Structures are given as structure tokens and as C-alpha cells.
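Teaching assistant's notes for section 4

Start the section by putting this record on the projector. Ask students to predict, before seeing the second block, whether MFS transporter will look compact or extended. Collect guesses on the board.
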Amino acid sequence: MPLPPLSPEQLVKPSRFELRMSLIFGTLFISLGTHLPYFPLWLQAKGFHAEQIAVILAAPMFLRVITTPLLTTLADRARDRADVYVVLVAASLLLSAGYFLTPTYATVLAVSLVLTIVWTPHSPIADSLALSGVRRFGANYASMRKWGSICYLLANVAGGFILAASGPGAVPVIIVLALGAALIAGLLAPRMGRPRKASPLSAVEIQHAAPSLFNAYFLSFTLGVGIITASHAFLYGFVSIYWKSIGISDSVVGLLWAWGVVSEVCMFLFFNRIFASVSVVKVMVIAGIGSVARWIIFPLIWPLGLGIAGFFAVQSLHSVSVAMVLIGLQKMIGETVPEERTGAAQGIAYFFNGFFMAAVTLVSGPLYDRLGVDGFLAMIPIAIVGLMLIGLAARSAPQSPVRG
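Reveal the predicted structure now:
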């Protein structure tokens, strides 16, 4: 199906397009790079126990797998996606101030639920704007998107030092300031009009193309990816709390998180040199084995006296258990899904990842409450289930890559 023609306005490249999109990606990821590692520490500092923290983290995950495709569809149909982005960032900024209210369990949960509705679509809408520039004007996506990764990394490091100096109470302040910066960048966003192709997470795209993707290979593979990814829920939810409990400072916690991101970026840089000739199933098997190894090793580091150096070493496995999963998923979609269905494929993978991550996050609270760091051992069978699904996918893998 041919794409609709560009209007005369859409044929003109907005001035400083790459710079403006780089600012959007950079400011977008500062708040995300603060929220993931440090929000659980703020929740603990406010007196919430592990099960409450798990619910506060997991409930928004369940909600956003439903609301995000609907809002990206709204953005696709709006006169300009940039206007939707600005409204959502402004709403996020306003709602994030709710964390300054008296932090009762009901209040924090309610704020988190409403906030996730307007916060989670920022990234796919920004991606949609950037990819329109790639398609229309030949803009370099990687050169724009890299600033998101750089700022995420800087937020990990800087957040740790800020918390070391001022305590976990700084977390909502940093998030509000970061969203304020994102709003300023959003006001400068290039206006691109409607997309000619639906955004990857668009509900319309998923509804129209998904039935053709419901085959054994695609479903087994994406389910396996989602479950292997979900085995990281215990890490994301409670590793900062665990590190603090054994006396590791906030600044070092930030550096440990940042090292995982550095390892991930290194895999992105060198993947093709190392694994270009390796089948996508084997890539995912390596990633799954890396996840299992990570969860076996993690609880042993401190008891064996390996210290902070041991945690830095195991964080290096982020390059295998996370980066190779992300790359392997995209490699599978690129090799087996026709171009006109890639958006729906991305949306289905997003749903599986989000749903299983939410489910495992929910049970991670009781696990941490009862087992502490040994809760990582419960992630081993989850990763193994994901590996088994990848094995099932291998049995029905297509013999040759898709053409066109």
C-alpha cells in the first residue's frame, strides 16, 4: 500500500532539525535516568515496605501497555504530533508535582498511575518525529538518539552524587526539573504534520496488521523475549535498595547503574563485528544464558567478599542480558516481518515486554521482603522459561529472510 504524498509544507526540512530532536531526546531521558534507579530509594525513604513499592512500580506498567498505544494513535491523527508531545510533557510536569504531597500509599500510587498515562508516550512520539525526519530528509537517527543514551547515563551518575549530598528527597525535585527542561525542548520541537505511516506503538497499526503475525515463530520468539526481559524486574525494582542496605553509597549506586548502560552501549557498537554471522535464535539463546548467569552470580558477590568490583563485573552482563535481547528482537523483526507490518510487530513486542515486566515486578516485592538478595534466584526459572520459548521458536524458524 503506497504512502500518502507529502504536502508542500512537509517537503521543507525544519531548520536545525537534528539539533532540536537531539534536545528532545536528551531532556526526555534525564527524568527516565533518574526514575528507574532512584525512585525505589525515595519510596523506601518515605516508609513504604517492599510489597507496597512493588505495587507502586508494577501497577503503572500494567496500565501503560493499554494507554500508550491509544495515545500514540491520537498523536498520529493530530494535526501535528509535536503539539501532542508538548501537551503530554506539560501534563507530566504538572502531575509529577503530586509527589510533593503528603506521601501516603494511596496518594503516591494514584499519582504514579495517572502520571504513567501521560509520561510513557514521550519516547515513542519523539521516535516518530525523528523517524519522519529520517524518511523525508535523510536525517541520521543514531546521531540524534545517542543524546538520549548520553543523558540517561549522566542522570544515573549525577543522580547518585546528588542523593549522596542531599538524600532521596531530591528524587522528585530532579524529575520535576527534568520534565521542565523537556517541556522547553518540546516547545522547540520541529513541526512535521501527520505521519504517513503509523507510529510503532499505534493501536490502529497493531489492530490492522497483528493477525498476520500470529504464527508460531513470531509468537514464541516475542513471548520468550518478553519473559527474559521480565526476569530483570527484581533488579530494576530492588537492586538500589539492596545496595544501600549493605552500605554502598548513593554515588557508587549511580556509577553501578551507569556502568550497566556503558556495557549496553558497547554491545550496540560492537555487535555487528562479533555476531553478524550468528543466527538470531543463537543471539537470543546467548542473551538468555547471560541472564541466568547474572541471577546466579548476583547473590554470591557480597557473601564471597568480591565487593563493589564484583558488582561492576556482574553489571557488565547488562551488555548480554539486555542489549543482546534488544538487538536480537529487532534483528528477528527485520529478517522475518514485512516492512508494512513492522509497526504492529513492535507494538506486540512492547505489550509482551510490558505485561510480563509488570507481573514479575509485582511479585518481586514479596520476594525481596522474604528473601532479600536471594530473590534473584527466583529470576533464574523465569529466564529459563524464556529460553525454552526461544527454543520452541527455533523449531519453526523461517528458512530464509523476508524480502521487501
